[in-house]
Amino acid sequence: MQDLAFFASKLLWWPARPGTAAILLALLGLVLLWRGRRVGRWPALLGIGFLALIAVLPLDQPVLLPLEQRFPRPAQEPAHIDGIVVLGGAVEQRLTEARGIPALNGAAERMTEPVALLRRHPEARLVFTGGSASLAPGATTEADVARRLWDELGVPPERMAFETQSRNTFENAAYTRRLVGPKPGETWLLVTSASHMPRSMGVFRQAGWAGIIAWPVNYRTSLDPEVWLDGTFPARLRDFEWGIREWVGLTAYWLMGRTDALFPAP
Q1: Is residue 99 one of the residues assigned to a domain?
Q2: What is the dihedral of CA 53, 59, 60, 62, to 10 degrees?
Q3: What pLDDT does 7 receive?
Q4: Of 84, 104, 187, 211, which sits with the fewest C-beta atoms within 10 Å of its C-beta?
């Protein structure tokens, strides 16, 4: 069942993601119009109209903002931290293999923030969780890239642990808890993108990881309207798709019993 859910999520998302769906609708409409079918106006209008709206309006902001505001970062850093769990998703395995140096994507703060936390908390352990989320994984896992990056940044090997088999957030929580075995009363931080935090916290709680603290990074929204107008069309489309994917993921995980609530809260 777990494998089926993983493959289904990958295969269904490609045609369902908003940008791809809009292009497919526009192409369908154009083909119908070329064949003399006036009904083709509607799918063409829907597809092209959606892309035009993304180009001129910051539609990504209202989609992402509730997700990023759900778990605010604590006003004060805990005095004692037993460990930091970092979710995968910020590294590029294929580029790392191709170029020979650790490659990061737009969620790079997931990888840099924990290093700063470790320097302030010599008592803390650092745990990375991530194998490969690809249907055709290569020889390098996300954990391999993380290990190499943190080695080069000077993190002592004895302070790091790596979970290498997980493919999604559900497996991140289950496999990492099995690896680490957190004890009652310990303080653990969960580091991931702010928009991904509601689903992540719901999954970790459901996995039995009590008391874990959300430590969000990689914000993509602002309460300042001037920031909303700064985004380019590709960035807006990317962030809109990411937000929709998170809302769909929250619903799917709740229906499957993988989260403790439809929209987990602090």
Answers
A1: yes
A2: -170
A3: 57
A4: 211
